Predict the 3D structure of the following.
Amino acid sequence: MAPILIPLGGGLLSFIFYRKGFSISLLASIVGISLRTDGPSLLMLLMTGVTSITITLYAAGYFSFRIASPSKPGRHERQLQFFWPLWMILLGSLNGLFLAGDIFNIYVTLELIGLSAVALSALSAKPSSQIAAFRYLLVSLLGSLSYLLGIAFLYKTYALLDLDMLRLVPPMKGAHTAFALMSVGLMLKTALFPMHFWLPPAHANALAPVSAILSALVVKASFYLLFRFWFDIFNDLVTPGALFVIGLLGTGAVFWGSIQALRQHRMKLLIAYSTVAQLGYLFIAFPLTQIQEKLYWLPVICMAMGHGFAKTAMFMASGAIFLHVKHDRINELTGVRAYLPVTVFAYTIAGVNLMGLPPSGGFIAKWMLIYAAFEMHKWWWGIVIMLGSLLAAAYVYRVVSKLYVMPPDTIIIEKKAHSMLLEWPPLFLAILSLILGILAPYMVSILLLSKKLVSIGGIM
Amino acid sequence: MSSHNTYPERKNSLALPVILLTSGLFLLLSYTLLSIEQAGGLAAQVQSALPKSGAESPVTAVLLNFRGYDTLLEVMVLFLSILGAWSIGRASLPQALIKTSTIQISCVRLLIPLMILIAFYLVWQGTRFAGGAFQGGSILAAAGVLLLVSDFPKLIQIHSIHLRLGFILGPVTFILIAFYCIFTNKTFMAYPAAIVSQLLLFIEIACAISIGLTLAALFAGGRPAQESSIAQRKGSTL
């Protein structure tokens, strides 16, 4: 219980801090570090909190099932023993990243997130997962170093590390290179096409709860930073050409990810490629964002939250199916609904969000993006989003149709005893992603909350 | 070995884009380095805040006081590295006794106490001059590596719980002191002015021990052999 209680306690403390909101002297914020929350970061924290609680519950059910029927004695106990500390450090550093108000502090949290994510993805001990994890480690380090080089240039130019102060400085010569280096590093970590090559093997070969963590939370953290840098902190450096290129890469991701997803034979690889495609929409949002509008964060946050919940549910569901059927070859998954009805239902509902049907979070996000595309006379992005949704429907139905069909010769496996934690958490998240559109007004009110400060260190 | 034929071909096709990308990056970086207008850094601000920081060395003041939160997270990175290494594999230490030469053994016996002394001296003087937890910790790690390569028989008998407690000593001390500051100064990590230098020294010593142990354990390469899973232990008792 202890590993669950500690981050919860941390969450409570950070909530108290948020309410108090310390004021700090100018000196402290130059040489010290401050933490900040505002609307977008609160929503990301909320997404992380909800997802992590369900993943934690699911992981408890998942590991107890595996330990009860081990494939190799002792292996799952070892996985369990290292899963908890790694996952809790990852969770803590994700929260740290969303609260950070200092570019170097962000680098340290990125490093913590990257290393713990790599160790988690290597946990399944299959050779394929270890190769994928090693590649993930190299990409993650390259991304971090690129980001660090960017910080070095920024510090040389402005002698500042604080985000709020960097927002106010005029663009200077070194800043463009720094901005480019930081952006490329973060894009590598977010797996933007064509830098996505590391993601599908790393996500598909990990243990089911780990896949959910990586797909739902880890890539979102670097995306959140990227969006904040482009539209909040360094908006003066952004040019329309750069936005167009990002949108183009996003389009590539949507099509390449969807088509690859359609070609996969294994369910987890299909879901992993769908992550590549769904991340593409987040980047198509770049040329469609108008920072004059107060709610310019809303489409990407809706997309990120909807995808986070839905993708977690899908990976959890595929994990539960894998534990029962012992494989995840899509063509041989007929009739699963007979013995895992809740899981299959959760998978289908999560698919609704990926397709972008109302009232899901994906629908709200895509609706706003398409609306912006036509309003700004950039209708081609709207077409891309619609075609992408069509492809998403195709790859979701490819699995769902198999799960529901019951040909006469179907072999129905006897349902194994398993804890409720294996089936209900994915359903909860899937339903949450479905009704996210209805909850959007509450998200708007959180988004408009004003900024609070917490300082750490520094002379008071 | 069917990949034998395809491998060189693939290498050639990648060579050109790699050369283009690297030279482009090189040009961009050198252009930036030449054109950048330097702002001079924060040395003056740090210097002016130094008297209140509890450390005479500006490096220590920045590491443990002004940006102590970053250092706490960096110590966590180090802990994470050993956690990751232990999760992946076992250490390949020889289980049987190997005869090490008498010269090596007596050298190691002379050196180890001296190295520990130097390590703690570096930590001690870190508040005034160059030095501190990371420098002292690396000397401790070197002592550990020396013991490991000399195959001291006692090493494989160290129970993993002692190692694990050693790894978390630094981060836990750091966090506890940071929380203690909430009760005294109402802010995380705002050290009370009266005992600030003692607190910093306390953190440095704890971190140095953890850093040294972690680096030496990373050299060993994995979790100790008796760190077998719970199931196997259960299996042996049944």
